[in-house]
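hey so u asked for the seq, here:
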Amino acid sequence: MRFFEVKVKYDKMLETGAVKTVTETYALDALSFTEAEAKITDKMRPFIQGSFEVTAEKIAPYTNYLRGESDLYYQVKYTFMQFNETNGTETKKHLETILINAEDFDEAKAKAVEYQRNTTVDWQIDTLKETSIVDVFTYLDNVDVTVSTAPLPE
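ran it, structure tokens below
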């Protein structure tokens, strides 16, 4: 599974009652471009007041998503370094990008640090930037997860 970023252009009803054509970016997990387009069309159907068009699709650079309760999304790019224990020279570099939902830059940075807290390799945050993503749709959005607090049978 991978994340896709999909741009859609549609007629949106504003709070004032006026209809305005907007272009918005959404992130979603899917198996293919076809599934991503079908999924965004299905998710946007209740909000469409007229025309609707998928204007762009691309594979997103991030591999993981940290949920939150905000309307803002931040992209964090990490570099992981591994070192040769005998001479201390760098032997390998690995890059990872994740998407974080946070209220502001400081909360996004705190979540990014917490996400890497228990790693055993050296890492650093290369970039942390706000994105234009409006919402994220994942497979878990459609799954009801029930956590049982009943004791396990003996």
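Residues 143-150 have pLDDT under 50 and may be disordered. Residues 70 and 103 are 5 Å apart (CA to CA).
lmk if thats what u needed
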